[in-house]
Amino acid sequence: NWKYQVFVLDPPAPIECPFTGMWTFKQVGQPNSLIQTRIRGGITPRPRDHGWFITCDPQYMVSQWTICGDQTKSMFADREYCRQLDPYGTPIGVYEQPDYIYQCAGYWREDSRSVMVTYDRDDPYNNYKCWVYERRDLTTITLSRSAGSACGFNQTSESYKSEDGADLAITLIEAERIHDDCPIRYDDVKSQIGCTFDRPLLGEYYSYENGLEAHTSLKENGDIDRLFYRRESGRGATANIITVLDNHAIGECFNLIWRENPFDHASKHHFELIYRDKEKSCYQCYELYNRTRNVLQIRTSECNEITSIVTNQINFQDLCASINQDADFDTLFLKTYSAEECRATIYGTYHFTYEFREGGIGICDNPISRLVSCPDPGTPFEAVNERFWMTYGYCRDLVSSIDAQPLYQCLGYWINDKGDIFTGIANERVGSERWYDKFRCMLTRQDQPQWFAKSLFAECARLYSPTDGPEKVIISPIIPEVPTPTCFFPDNFTGEWVNTANVNARTIINATHIHEISQVNNRGWLRETYYVCQQISRQQFLVKTVTKGECFSYYICFDFKDRHHNILRYRKSKSFMSNVYDDLSKRDPLYEVCSWISFGNDANWKYQVFVLDPPAPIECPFTGMWTFKQVGQPNSLIQTRIRGG
């Protein structure tokens, strides 16, 4: 967010205000923050002509906000300005003093907002105020005033609530009465007919829109170039050269603002860009959604010269309101992308089946199909996986199956208001001369992680659900490697056990393996872990651990007590990555993993308990006949019940 603090010269040297003109104004805000009529400097002791000019016919009473003439370094606000003429033909308001004088101290552009600081020497509490201002159309300007000296982080030109850091919102409506005496000038720290681009919008983008390949350039000076190509007939989907230019749009940014409603889902916050076509001389509204630092999504209006037949003028608010909010997004991928983490979308080692909607119906289930999304071995601990590879196995009975191994880099993910998780990906094994084959989009959900849909082009619009898309993939977790056992567990360990610390887990032990199956959530998804015997020292067993769907194997040490009746007690050490001990001639994992410090510093040496399932009956530790009294939770007391009905 890069929030900057501000130093203001005290007192500030007056500067030219960022806009000039004459307006009437409407205001909304906190009751004690509204602009009220006040008499600056006190009442005139001896008003001219016995004060006849103080009264004004209500029909001529208006509000007035002026920055004009030779007074363009201050904003003059008058809550009640009289437009009536005196007997000499002079406006009565000429004799009045404005209620507020805001001296312009500085203005700049930050976070796509135009910000201004003013100085009010008559304010007894706070001389400095921060304003966010915006030109809505040719005759209207909105601006909001901060509650304190600094603009709020969420303050926009329409803010007036304290949670946004503002206390007053003002709408200025053009009301120039003398032609060219007070012309409107506006500077949002960009030229009026052009705005500049910075991150996250600046860059060169590729997209696939309505069957055409689009190359979009958002330049630093505000120019926007869009070139639309169609693939030459007969070249096929893997053509390296695109030769047919279908359309070329050249324009510039006229205005750029950030739209954010705190009551809307975060996925609906966006930039609103007014685009002016240089060739057609028309205006178009763009909604730019910054999904990740590599992906933009846009929706556009028609390019119009006017939006009102009555006034024959362009109204930007009406232009943007004409965008269909149910329309599909066009997805733009940054050509100079930088990879982001994949963990939120997919992580681990999986087998997968796949099916293409077009080109042949059928699911290809080849045992060699693999999806691996894991960090590269040897990367720092804080590094996360930024890419994954998929090995597609070929199915002889399906013409739509393929034999390929793409390596995808993740371009970031975003979540819409329905809970769908979208991820942009780029095929690292496709060169920059083949943008058509490089970018793709994936869709999954947090509550359906085994399914995801993948696009066939650089678009997300045809992904409707994890099971409805051009390519459907179903993944199932597998173990990252198959360890070889090199020792044996005692014979009386064999059997099926229940861990009393986790009654939702089943544990099966044979001569060389401990297989633990646990339910990880209320949907019944299972987590399967295998512990494979490697070395034995006294009652300590060094095992190699592999978990279905995980990336790496680990060494763990079990410290077992001798089996007693149906009970098997044990302690488990911390886990150690197995690849650290690949060279066993230098480091023996047994002495490190099974050292006492690996079991933690629990002075009571707390043991976990396995109970044989089902247990073999044994003699109880005491016998006799008793009456009993009980105390406990109401739903835990022993109650009368009829067993068996």
UniProtKB/TrEMBL annotation:
One of its GO terms (biological process) is wound healing. It comes from the Eukaryota. Residues 484-596 form the DUF7043 domain. InterPro entries: DUF7042, DUF7043, DUF7044. Residues 194-308 form the DUF7044 domain. It holds the Pfam family DUF7043. Residues 14-159, 341-474 form the DUF7042 domain. This is Uncharacterized protein. It comes from Rotaria sordida.
